Amino acid sequence: MKRWTRGQLAGGLAGMLMLMSGGHAHASLVGRDADGNAANGYEAYYDTVLDITWLADANLAYTTGVAAAEQGRMSWLDTTAWIDQTVNAAGLYGVSTWRLPSYAPVDGTSYQLDSSVTPTAYFDGTIDYGINNASTSSELGYMYYVNLGLLAWADTTGTATTGGYGFDSPGVTLDNEVTGGYYNTVQLADVTVGAVTFSQVAVHGGLWTGATVTNDPYWGSGQSAFYLTADNGQIDLDAVSYDPNGFDTRQAAWLVTDGDPFSVSAVPEPASGVLMAAGAGLFAVRARRMKKGAASQRP
């Protein structure tokens, strides 16, 4: 008879409990039922690496009609005001700490925006302006490159990507597409990668971060905010206020909150509690039988 080690017993129990939890994960994302109604799927995903929770509705401003005509895009100042005065004031899903994704300097000290420092600086993610920044310092970059597995328009050496990039990357499924813009192209779509689905993602244009700088080399004096270009993976800068007579400085907002506010309760539901107790009992019986059998075989 095959003997199980303590490690195998523990691993088997952990596997059984994981199946009972009912959560699905892709990379570091774990689905969360924020509204308490399991029948309508997940309203959020917890990132176990970044320790933040993303809304499954990736464009709340659009789906709630706040900026529907602009596919959810607003200036950075209008976006942050809407988050504070509307979303957090209402306590979406009982949480009042929703925010834009953070973007910290890659070197941990100060933002580096000069792409001429090395031949590959723009391409290899070593500065704060460019592509392929998949570090945890960029919450949007980590989601884009790691969790969703999207590709930039070029690799870290500057070689152009073939076979699709951005939300046209391999393995990405788009549904419920919303078209618009000058060329009537796809602006928003439900994005599915593996078992994870986010709704109405701004697959064209930019996604705001919460990080700002002053006197940047592109917009000059004043305040600018970082955003990630969904089309090609580039981190760029835009003026924080909307200029109706100049560039369109409106981007979309994908909200996050710190921690895991919708984690499964440590106290199991009655039905799952019975299953867990039964499972633990089976493992305990198995362990006792093994111990008894081992004792009887001793010389």
UniProtKB/TrEMBL annotation:
UniProt key word Transmembrane helix: no
Residues of the Ice-binding protein C-terminal domain: 266-289
Transmembrane segment boundaries: none
Keyword vocabulary terms for this entry: Signal
Signal peptide interval: 1-27
InterPro entries xref list: Ice-binding_C (IPR013424)
Name of the protein: Putative secreted protein with PEP-CTERM sorting signal
